[in-house]
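TODO from last week: model TetR/AcrR family transcriptional regulator.
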Amino acid sequence: MSDSDQEHSSQPVLPSGFADWLQHGREDMRKGERTRAELVTAGANFLAREPLERLTVAAICKSAGVAHGTFYLYFPDKNALANEVLGAFVDYVQGRMRAAAHLPGDAARNTTAAYLQLFEDNAGLMKCLVVGVDAFPEARGAFQRLNREWAETVVRATRRREGPDRPQDDLMRRAYALGGMVDQYLSALFITGDPWVRALSEDREAVLEMLTDLWKRGMAP
């Protein structure tokens, strides 16, 4: 094995949760559908360990085990693939958080715990959404959709709990602001590796309780 191969094999790969989700139902797919799924999974694996700007068609084809020309049967360019990968990742995150909201116990704590774990397990993909938004419209659009849909979910839950009297715009502003604070904290912890934030976050249960408390207090009347 060459030094470059050793370096590549030691790099982190996509956690099984999202990879399995992408490949769900693969045995029932037609050949073309399987090839497309392999390309998307290869793109997700790449973005789990490399920034968006390093994404290349050649790297994706090598990882998926397909000819270079095959890529263009499914995607017009690498940005289209990135758009599909990040859109799928947003769907995955939303699905996991909705599932967490229906678990027994405190819904706010359960969804916050799910997001904390998703952010940690998929830091590379979250970096594409949070950090890559300025240069790539694909990342920007996916991140904005994640924020919008989650803010709407939080507001609906608040209205079910408290009734419809509070203004919609006020609740949406609060949800957006709180989501931004959570993303900033988790980005410092899992993406940029701020040493002071890491030192303050060694007790993961304390971090979870703090973030849950922020959501509850911030959405309270």
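Done. Residues 1-15 have pLDDT under 50 and may be disordered.
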